[in-house]
Design a protein that fits this description.
heterodimer; A: 307 residues; mainly alpha; 12 helices; globular; B: 544 residues; alpha+beta; seven-stranded mixed β-sheet; four-stranded mixed β-sheet; 19 strands; 32% helix
Chain lengths: 307, 544
């Protein structure tokens, strides 16, 4: 097992390097640059700004310098758009925000999704099943950019219970709406996966044996059916967790949370090269890490899997 | 990590301060109104500020912040007219080349140091210095300071710039050539003073809360990127006793519909009105929905160079296209936000500008359409001639698209011309338009100072913003003469006539700003066409 983890982490390094190279190529292929505004800058000023950020160097050198700074100094460079902030500042400020609402969204989506899915499977083809399926389809077809304004309309404007945006260091009343808006579609997916895999498990031989032994239903579900039924859900949870904790453009923009999710889009529009790279590396590294975590959990849950 | 701790500490302080302020205030407003206990002002901004350093500010929202944290030589009143600020006044020499500003001795920085003429000298040299690499360096060039060209391209030392401190209270500015509107230009944030010791102590971080020293009516107390920026009253401001609003908060809300909902829920005092919603909101909230002119013009560039299509090099085709646009429909039905039809590049609300009577403005739309058909037939295109398809390029946005669709429809009905729409993401769009890789392209221009040349200069042959590729020596001569003319208005009008005849651009409308403003907030400069507001002039009246 230990050797396996070391091997996987070793493969992660070239994977990240390939990610960096592809991102760099795509970035330089896009027309425009970070300092091309509606008013073209005088050549002298443009040259000065570009020199300040090393953009006057050949592409290969920019890429090599970047990798060197990241690996050796752990320095992700300055933001081109915001002169008084570095990429590290942006991540240090924004990542805790998305981590907070992303983590709670994950918990909500997991608990609600699994409960709905199990309830639907156990009471297959009853009103409970139809209700659970109805809720999860409804949540799936309402994307968060539709959910978010509806939530604000209802809870902020009509009921006046919760603020319509802001973060204020993550006080609970500012976290509730982003969590609901972000978790619903994940919850729906988890519920559907849980339901179908639970149905399959409940029809298998060992469950029939357990029933024949006269075990109570809750015990059959928890003790025997849950573990195997959870495997397909687990492989969905790895990437979903990364997506959630790195935030969502829609949530950040609608709720003004100050999270890093919005930089996925903003930095690309602004050609803020260093921020694009920093965020890409962060998401890439987290994805690799949590895929590994999922694989380890697999081995723990399913004794048939050996690395 | 230190940044976060600072921000949180700032939040706690601001909350405490807010309470203390609320108790202290039971005075009356400038016109004897009873003031509300709560003297805070919260408004929405679209996006995070690229910079709040006066020398680097490049966007409208950043300059609102700059005007509250800093104060320039001159300010503007509620109509946009000049009022004294740090300078009590100025004198101009007979040749118009030397401006002498007298600074008020009581002006201080937020740390208590006096504001001296040398602070302006430092700020101006810094903004012009290519080392600073300011995206607004060109503004110093626009001010026509002596030696500015040399300083900007690095061939001269910044100390040779035509600005010097004769003594602490006297700032002497030398221009390369007379500029009748020079005094208007020193209301702009790029010309605001900065404290050399402060900038040098913290480097790029000097604009962080806690570091930043300003001379405006407010100090920066909190800044959470992409979330909010909070400013509190500067007790060291020379006129602090007349400043009523105690705290100004800018909330960054990207989605304008979301901002409107939060305004209606009472979280904001001011927010922009999303496109097309003004008529409905004006009916529902007549005391809160506001439409004011805005010194910007919306037009289409016509690529008149060889890289465009041949038909557009024919002036009759351009005239016909220009005539066949029914601006009233665009303004009243498509946009519906208080905009005005445009037949000239210069915005009608520009100070000292009277819209010349260009022929097209005098006609009815039937007459325009008839004339357009005649011209187009003469050129041999359209309904009875060669089929013509033109491409309209615009940066991706729903409202640009609606305008383009409407205009395409008008051209098809009136002239039998087909149009295709091409939208591009902003950076790609700028590159295509700048490289003249287009046929017709959407454009918008906002005045940098309240004078007609701020619009017309962009059509000069050598202007970097002349995306139409228009060259006309007569036009250039008029603009050159206007710089030194006693009364430049007739020259500007003549220049507009040339544009109306040659049609390198199709003016479409003059912008208006529409926004919701809480009806308890008074003192908003509704007649300032540049929308330059100062929080120190605002106050909140008590509910009756």
């Amino acid at each position: 097992m230990f050797a396996y983890i070391v091997r996987r982490l070793a493969v992660a390094i070239p994977t990240l390097l390939i990610l960096v190279v592809i991102s760099f190529v795509l970035m330089f292929a896009a027309p425009g640059g970070p300092f091309n505004g509606e008013r073209p800058l005088p050549p002298q000023v443009l040259a000065n700004i570009e020199a300040r950020y090393g953009l006057d160097q050949p592409y290969w050198k920019q890429m090599a310098d970047y990798v060197w700074n990241v690996v050796v100094h752990f320095d992700f460079g300055p933001s081109f758009q915001y002169r008084d902030r570095t990429v590290t500042d942006i991540i240090v400020q924004g990542f805790p925000v998305t981590l907070t609402y992303g983590f709670w969204s994950f918990v909500v989506a997991l608990v609600a999704g699994v409960s709905l899915g199990v309830a639907a499977a156990v009471r297959h083809n009853t009103w409970l099943d139809y209700l659970a399926v109805g809720i999860s389809i409804g949540a799936q077809v309402l994307p968060n950019f539709v959910m978010a304004p509806i939530l604000v309309l209802v809870f902020t404007l009509w009921l006046g219970w919760l603020p319509g945006g802001g973060w204020y260091g993550g006080q609970w009343e500012y976290v509730v709406l982003p969590v609901i808006a972000l978790s619903t579609s994940y919850m729906a997916s988890i519920a559907r996966i849980t339901r179908s895999s639970m149905l399959e498990v409940l029809n298998s031989g060992f469950i029939r044996t357990a029933r024949a032994k006269g075990l109570p239903t809750w015990r059959i579900i928890w003790k025997h059916a849950m573990k195997p039924a959870f495997l397909p859900v687990l492989s969905y949870l790895g990437p979903a967790f990364v997506f959630m904790i790195t935030g969502s453009v829609v949530i950040d923009l609608f709720f003004s949370t100050g999270g890093i999710g919005q930089f996925f889009v903003n930095s690309a529009f602004n050609r803020d090269y260093a921020v694009i790279m920093g965020i890409t590396i962060l998401v890439g590294a987290l994805t690799i890490l949590f895929n590994l975590v999922v694989d380890i959990l697999y081995a723990w849950i399913d004794p048939k899997i050996r690395y | 990590m230190t940044l976060r701790t600072q921000l949180l500490a700032g939040a706690a302080l601001a909350a405490l301060a807010g309470q203390a302020f609320a108790e202290a205030h039971t005075m009356t407003g400038p016109n004897g109104e009873t003031l509300a206990e709560n003297q805070t002002f919260t408004y929405r901004v679209l996006d995070e500020f690229p910079s709040i350093d006066p020398g680097l500010i490049e966007d409208v929202e950043g300059s609102h912040i700059g005007r509250n944290l800093f104060e320039g030589l001159m300010g503007q009143d509620d109509k946009g007219d000049l009022v004294p600020a740090v300078a009590t006044g100025y004198e101009v020499s007979d040749d118009g080349l030397t401006y002498t500003f007298t600074l008020r001795p009581e002006a201080t920085w937020s740390n208590g140091d006096p504001v001296v003429a040398g602070d302006f000298v430092y700020a101006w040299q810094r903004a012009a210095d290519p080392e600073t690499a300011s995206p607004y360096q060109w503004y110093m060039g626009l001010m026509n300071l002596a030696n500015v060209e040399g300083v900007m391209d690095g061939s001269m030392d910044p100390s040779e710039l035509g600005v010097e401190a004769t003594d602490d209270q006297t700032l002497t500015v030398t221009l390369a050539e007379p500029l009748p509107y020079f005094a208007q230009m020193v209301t702009h944030t790029t010309t605001f003073p900065v404290l050399q010791s402060n900038v040098e102590e913290f480097g790029d971080d000097w604009t962080q809360p806690g570091n930043m020293i300003g001379n405006g009516a407010y100090v920066l107390s909190e800044r959470v990127p992409q979330e909010r920026l909070v400013m509190t009253k500067n007790e060291n401001y020379w006129d602090a006793e007349n400043v009523i609003i105690e705290q100004v908060t800018a909330l960054i809300i990207n989605d304008e519909n979301q901002a409107l909902t939060r305004y209606l829920a009472g979280e904001l005092d001011q927010t922009d009105i999303p496109a097309g919603q003004f008529p409905r909101l004006e009916e529902e909230y007549p005391d809160q929905a506001v439409s004011v002119p805005n010194l910007c013009s919306y037009y289409y560039n016509v690529n008149v160079t060889d890289s465009g299509v041949e038909a557009l090099q024919n002036v009759d085709v351009r005239r016909a296209l220009n005539l066949a646009i029914d601006r009233d429909i665009i303004v009243d039905n498509v946009l519906a936000g208080g905009q005005r039809p445009a037949y000239t590049l210069t915005n009608w609300a520009t100070a000292g500008f009277e819209v010349p009577s260009v022929p097209i403005a005098e006609m009815t739309q039937q007459e325009r359409n008839a004339m357009a058909q005649e011209l187009m037939a003469g050129a041999g295109y359209g309904t009875d001639g060669e089929p013509l398809t033109l491409e309209i390029l615009y940066n991706t946005s729903e409202s640009h698209q609606s305008v383009a669709v409407a205009i395409g429809q008008m051209w098809k009905q009136t002239l039998g011309i087909e149009t295709t729409l091409a939208n591009q993401e902003w950076q790609t769009f700028l590159e295509a338009r700048g490289a003249k890789d287009y046929e017709l392209a959407r454009a918008g221009w906002c005045a940098d100072y309240n004078e007609a040349s701020s619009f017309l200069d962009i059509m000069q042959s050598d202007s970097g913003y002349n995306d139409s590729g228009f060259t006309n020596p007569d036009f250039d001569t008029l603009m050159f003469d206007a710089r030194t003319a006693e009364t430049p208005l007739p020259l500007y009008q003549e220049a507009e006539q040339i544009i109306a005849t040659e049609v390198p651009i199709l003016p479409i409308y003059h912008y208006a700003t529409t926004f919701m403003l809480n009806d308890s907030i008074e003192g908003w400069p509704l007649e300032n066409a540049q929308d330059n507001w100062y929080a120190k002039d605002l106050y909140r009246v008590a509910a009756e």
